[in-house]
Model the fold of this input.
Amino acid sequence: MEVDILELSDRSAKFVLSKVGMAFANGIRRAMVADVPTLAIEYVNLYDNTSVLYDEQLALRLSLIPLVTDLETYMPQAECTVCGGEGCPACELSLTLSSEGPAVVHSGDLISSDPLVQAADANIPIVELKKGQKLVLEAIAHMGYGRDSVKWQAGIACGYKNVPIVSVENCDACGHCAAECPKSIILVEESGAMVPEEDLLKCSLCRLCEKVCDINAIKVSFDENAFVFTMESDGSYTARDLILNASDVVKGKAEGLISILDQL
Amino acid sequence: MISVRCFSCGKVISNHWDEYKRRVDGGEDKAVVLDDLGITRYCCRRMLLSHVELVDVLSPYQ
Done:
């Protein structure tokens, strides 16, 4: 397996994963979306709400706020070894919010009982309070999996495509393919059409160039064992941590399978 | 209130609403503002483009 990082920032990453099968690539993708646990608000105790939003709408908005997650400190509630799922400091934490209008309540106004766990973005508007409107609540956040609810989904727009291979033979440099290419990556020179190496990964494998070519000079294929991955994180983990955690999840599942097979 | 996340992909978009509204009201092109804010996918772009803020309309009827 080889990893070639093309772009890496705090919240997003793009990399080429090669010399692996499609099942493995898809395993990583699914783990990023569904199997890396994150913290999200699960219960809300509302003490006062005279805002324009119903309690349920407020709870939904609160739940969708990504919280910076520490995978070491918290564990998913159903798997909690300390309390067995009852709720304890190892699997849940509380956040409080108290505000009076006129004001816009932002995610940064949530006061967390754990200073390490904060809203990933402090400027997410929760509700706008007019003069005299009040909002007082306590929210309980749990660890959970993206497969159970979108609020626990850390990976956003995780996807991959095969690394494209564009080959040109006996080209008459008519330029039809270059005109047809929606990504405009085909250059026509005297010797014929070609795709510069730095633009090759932009190819979406649409094969319009193949169809428009009268003499079948251009061929688009792909490498079955190399993938261009794009992924974003919602902020609960950095992009790098999310990829590493997803890999750990896949590894953990594989080890689980081995131990089951050993017992047979 | 603007939805916290994009309905389709789940990206948090509501934190860009204030800046988007301010700049669009100031006469800037919506497409340029969205590009500046780093909202590249069309699922996320429609969230801001099509949002109608109703808090001011609803607030007298509490």
About this structure: Residues 14-61 of chain B form a domain with the Arc Repressor Mutant, subunit A fold (CATH 1.10.10.60). Chain B has a mean pLDDT of 91. Chain B touches chain A at residues 1-2, 4-5, 9-12, 14-15, 17-18, 41, 55, 58-59, 62 (CB under 8 Å). The two ends of chain B are 16 Å apart (CA to CA).
